[in-house]
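User: Study the shape:
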Amino acid sequence: MKQAIKRAYPHHLLYRPTSSIYFSKSNHPIHPSPSPSPSPSQSPYDTHLPFFQNRQTPHHRFASRRPFSSSIDPHPPNAIPVVSTENSPFESSSSIDAGSSIRKPISLWPGMYHSPVTNALWEARSRIFERPQGIPGDAVSESELVPKTPSQSRTSIIYNFSSDYILREQYKNPWNEIRTGKLLEDLDALAGTISFKHCSNNEGATRPVLLVTASVDRMMLKKSIRVDTDLKIVGAVTWVGRSSMEIRLEVIQPIEEAFDSSDSLALTANFTFVARDSKTGKSAPINQISPETDQEKLLWKEADDRNQTRKKKRGENKKDVDDKEASRLKALLAEGRVFCDMPALADRDSILIRDTRLDSSFICQPQQRNIHGRIFGGFLMRKALELAFSTTYAFAGAAPLFLEADHVDFLKPVDVGNFLRLKSCVLYTELETPNRPLINVEVVAHVTSPEIRSSEVSNTFYFTFTARPEAMKNGLKIRNVVPATEEEARRVLERMDAENPELVQSRD
């Protein structure tokens, strides 16, 4: 039977290799020591190593560090994929091959809710942070916390879309473009891996803390991302508080005709992670950050300013509605009242918010969990974006283009078995530029418990889309969206003010 299987599938399909790590100081690959094939009882997050006979792992040094910027070469010179190393994982920026975990036939995957990259990252994480023998779980005490540099946590992923057909198929949408939701999922997974690196010592031992996504700052697409051109994501910790850290990620896709390296930068994102004690659930201190280069110091300053702004907003009491605010509410509700009271006379170029709604409900499955046993934040972001895309598609009558995701706060953890409901609507549109209308969509995630008749908001997502240029040339017309209730009108004003803080300051 085994011989029949071997004839039916090539060797590289029988074994799933680990995530490839690229470095450039040697002309010889490093092979792992013999390791048995994983048993069926192993967790999907355990390391899966290909089997090699009687090969030893030589000592080796990684490549020299690179500055963190959008000019990073996505293909390091003489890059060699390796499957394991005995050296410290913090000696360099190591690149993980996005296609390294999808060599099994697709039908044999244990769960299709994880992207190829999230699986590769978790495999790499389990190798990097596997505790050396003889080191107890609480060996790294708070007194041993030491400052670390951004370069020690720097990690990157390479997507070889141009040469890897299987990987390309995993990320292609029906319009032969990249699936943005899967990219957001990968960004969250990479940020989690980077946070693990920062919270570990140089021997790979990690303090017993839970690291969770607390928030994501605005992510703006600077240029369209192709699915037939190689792509790279690089990230590092740029700022650290007592128990929180900010990770900056850059999505880079080089183009041949680009004269400036900044032209290759497609997207930037800042993720905030917080550390919690695994036993008490309280905040836990983490290693501080020590920026070295001018660029790292600038990124630290920008992140610190964002943190101060967040604290200021949390400390502000909700102000009473003044005369100006009341006038804005009244103007927003005027057309909505016509829809409710005199629908035959309503503006045919407008539509009520409630008439744009879509929703989605599902039970959170074990295949969607992260390494802490809770639902992976990147999965929630992907599901929210896909629902927002569908909402915009149904509203506009043409497939939209994603532009940005606004600030996201993760208010409540989502556990395996939770009944999750996602509710979306078009909150408002901006039609000042006829050829590039903006469609702002809200998605609210509710954790619902039918047994105790409760429903709590876990996340609120805001996405911005636009119509495709070819659709606008063919006469597509985007309608205005109006609120029907005061509660809807308040939500619209809050989002408008969040999108245009300079206008709020001018009114004050």
